[in-house]
Amino acid sequence: MNKKMLQKAKALKPRLCHEIKTIEQKEILKAGESAVFDFGNHYVGYLTVKLSSVGSPQDAPAFIKFKFCETSPEIEEDTANYHGWISKSWLQEEWVHIDVLPCTLKLPRRYAFRYVKIEAVALSSKFDLVINSLSLDAVTSAPEEIKLSGASEKEKAIDRVALRTLRECMQYEFEDGPKRDKRLWLGDLRLQALANYQTFKHNDLVKRCLYLFAGTANNQGEISACVFTQPKVIADDTYMFDYSLLFIPTLLDYVCATNDIALGEELYPLAVKQLELAAKNFDNDVVRDSDKLGWCFLDWNLYLNKQCGAQAVYIYCAKSAVALLKLLGKDTKQLECDIENKSKAMLDRFFDSELKLFVSGKDKQVSYASNVWACLAQVLSNEENAKLLERLAVADAVKPVTPYMYHHYVQALIDCGLKQKARTVMTDYWGAMVETGADTFYELFDPENPEESPYGNKAVNSYCHAWSCTPSYFIRKYFER
């Protein structure tokens, strides 16, 4: 723990903005009945309910269930028999006994939701439960954003949902999702920060998060994939090959967006350290295969081979380190030599001359993740990358399943000059979520399989997730007229 850096992070902790939303909708429920309340948009905050009873005096406790839903299909989702590989405790449900009515019940937890379903699980037959009103204290640290001007109506609709997604995830830190995890993840932070620079410009929140990661690096200098801030600041014991490396471009993007050279000087040694640590996973300049690499994320696809993508992420981040060091006036010769060697090794090992695509692992898997990251790493020319992505679009390849991977696909298309194709991919993919009625963008969205979940059950999927907010970045930086 670097206490000095954590003190700087503490000094940058923001104040939350509060917005009170009230529903005056009186409902009378008998035992076994329920009512649904719609707040009209996605919110993150704290619920207060005014309750009373009608009929005879209350001769038994009122046993009430609250279910908080981000989307309307969740309202009737059966969670009683939930089976998944992450804890059932993430389900946004509360069971409360009320001994004395009337009362004003303030639920202590913070929820992410649009809809609240309230069920009278058990009552005495002598009285009914009355729900008089609901009040929500919605919270965010996001200031007012910059509105779009020159964009299509479809893009404006996508942008509204993207902005809502980002603001809901802006709390005391950039959270990955306000329904589940509710903490700071490095891969999410990088994309949130890019969108923030084009919209809310709450740059001190990015700086706070960079200090939180830097201040919790372990004894070897490795940066965790995730940081907890409650009950105290501590790094998670999850270390991911790609996420640790992505600290480098996250720092570079911040310095470029803010001209905060001082922070670049302070944190660049730790940033470069991530390359040194990641290099231990290479043999003769080729990264080890997935089963020997440790956790490399890339995308939520359980069948994705990560070897080629991991090599490309390393090269991409090493090039970001070169850009950062040059910005700070530092020597980059050794690092540029390393990039040249690993780029050559990547072409020799992973580029299939017959398919003219990058393949990964012993089974030579073709995937979007491998080829998109190869394009971002620019181991080929822009012209060659454009042709590669055109071949990829018609190849039998493992497709992306998250907005996180789709972000990188759109960026790769832009980088190699396929800007109109990038715009189409963005509007088609995120637009399809808008068409489902999304108020915020989802953690995972596979148009071909709406039931998809990386956790074994979609009841715990997050429907407001940080890494899906980047249409606001793309539209403003590349597409707005």
In the CATH hierarchy, the architecture of the largest domain is Alpha/alpha barrel
SS element count, helices: 15
Overall body shape: elongated
- What distance separates the N and C termini? 46 Å
Helix content: 25-40%
Question: Measured on Cα atoms, how large is the radius of gyration?
Answer: 24 Å
Contiguous uncertain segments of 5+ residues: none
CATH class of the largest domain: Mainly Alpha
Average predicted local confidence, pLDDT: 96
SSE order in H/E notation?
Answer: HEEEEEEEEHEHHEEHHHEEHHHEEHHHHH
What count of domains describes the coordinates? 2
Q: How is the CATH topology of the largest domain named?
A: Glycosyltransferase
The tally of strands reads: 15
The structural class is alpha+beta
Give structural notes.
With 481 residues, this protein is an alpha+beta fold. It folds into two domains: 20-140, Galactose-binding domain-like (Jelly Rolls, Sandwich); 153-479, Glycosyltransferase. The strands form four sheets. Strands 1, 2, 3, 4, 5, 6, 7 and 8 form an eight-stranded antiparallel beta sheet that branches. The chain has helices at residues 3-11, 153-169, 186-198, 203-215, 241-245, 247-258, 261-278, 290-293, 307-327, 333-350, 368-377, 382-392, 403-415, 419-435, 471-479, and strands at residues 17-23, 27-29, 34-55, 62-69, 93-98, 103-106, 111-122, 127-140, 184-185, 226-228, 234-235, 282-283, 286-287, 351-352, 357-358. It is built from 15 helices and 15 strands.
